[in-house]
Amino acid sequence: MVKEEISEFEKQRLANIAERDALLKKLTMEAQSSGLFPPKMPKPAAKDQSRSKKKAPVKRVKEETPQPRRMSSRLRGIAAESEVAKRKAEEENEALQAAERAKRVRKSDNFSFNEMVVYGQKLSGDSLIGVDVVTKGVAIPYQRTFGDDDVQKTTDKDLKALRKEMNGLKLWEAWEPNRIKLTPERIYSMTFHPTESKPLIFAGDKLGHLGILDASQEKPTSIKHEANDDDEDEEDDDPDPVLTTVKPHTRTISAMHIHPSKPTTLYTASYDSSIRAMDLEKSTSTEQYAPESTSSDEPISGIDMALSDPNVLYWTTLDGEFGRHDIRTKSKPTVSTWQLSEKKIGGFSLYPTQPHYFATASLDRSMRLWDLRMLQKNKSQDPVPVGEHYSRLSVSHAAFNSAGQIATSSYDDTLKIYDLKAKGISSWENGHTIPEDELGPDTIVRHNCQTGRWVTILRPQWQQNPQSHIQRFCIGNMNRFVDIYSGAGDQLAQLGGDGITAVPAVAVFHRSKNWVAGGTASGKICLWM
């Protein structure tokens, strides 16, 4: 094989390389010997390779003395600790759940107010109430949408006068709203006592507490203590309002009612499936209606009574039922119930002047008008309403006034007013029905009803005995106001004031006086008079 000869150019290139390598090696050795150059570092490739390969864990063998063959706890006669602990945990969990269920079971006993007091004043006398009582657009958050300018622009003389009167209502000056905590939890229902001698307010909350406030009380004059060496910074006394909170129910108080002919009795309805009567004069509470078994769950959503009959209770449930009971007898056959809806009935009310008619509002998006005479006549048939109207979303409440109007609130952000008197309800015969296209609302008002999870559902409430020919109702406003509207849908006022830190979602009118109260999710109230 013939060996290839290297060209002169290649020979020179190789010689240059060898000379350069020799020079670099010499310089490196000299630098290392003088300490100017660090020792040679390991190659990066080797380092990366060491990272990519995980070292196998070194198993440490623990030297132990030989043990006897493992045997089960049962064969060794020892109870397994894990089984004992598991059984104990299960028993404790069952006991805890049983205790929680017991808290929610209604109390069927009769008891006095002092036995129900949670906080506040206990009763020193026999009576809780004194002798004098016995004798239009969705708003920007927190921005007012109705005020003095709207009042001044009003051309109708009567409407303008009423607007001035309603806008003239002022917050109770004795205490700021954030200091009037009437219940421990969120307020679900409220009512005024019908007396005109003083504003007496009742509020029910989520856990069955009932708060009672006499707003005729005056704030005591502050007493300034003399400064001394021990207490130089002592402030003036500033007592909270006197109020009483009791707990007659074990679950949410959803509705309450005081019949004007029985002013000493407050009826409260609850999600614990019971209706109780509280004697405000004798300071006792008795159960008026409840299912036979305490394990039956029939949450009551509304309660009402006919003006002409103070002895019959009417109610609705979250299961879509409507009930009637004569409280003069304890006999269960006197209780009549009808299934009016497959979904919950959120609210209902009787027509005051013709109480055989009543309206219901349901989660199934309907407002229905019923005739009690037809329900009683056709007990074996499915109930048929006199008429019905559907909204785009669920209807929260249907409130009747004495003029034959129904006001509803709905999650489609509307307030609807149905004028049944104009449709001839006073002349309807037994069995009369009306098609849906004729039962539509006469007035629709835009109103934000998106309360969410933590605010009580907004419901309209009429003033049942207004002192003028103009009907009016109130409803909570998500911008921390209470709105007042007329029966024609005209806004009369927007009540607010300093110190209102939450939405007064539960708004109620006094029966005849221009007093308005609003309850919040923190159990506090606002009062305008």
Automatic annotation (TrEMBL):
Keyword Iron-sulfur tagged: no
Matches recorded under SMART domains: WD40
Superkingdom of the organism of origin: Eukaryota
One GO cellular component, as annotated: nucleus
Gene3D superfamilies attached to this UniProt entry: YVTN repeat-like/Quinoprotein amine dehydrogenase
Compositional bias (Polar residues): 285-298
GO biological process, alphabetically ordered: DNA damage response; regulation of DNA damage checkpoint
Biased composition (Acidic residues): 228-240
UniProt-annotated stretches for the region Disordered: 32-91, 214-242, 282-303
Positions annotated as WD repeat: 357-380
Keywords recorded for this protein, A-Z: DNA damage, DNA-binding, Repeat, WD repeat
Family: Belongs to the WD repeat DDB2/WDR76 family.
UniProt-listed PANTHER family: WD REPEAT-CONTAINING PROTEIN 76
Protein name per its UniProtKB record: DNA damage-binding protein CMR1
Source species: Aspergillus ibericus CBS 121593
Lineage: Eukaryota, Fungi, Dikarya, Ascomycota, Pezizomycotina
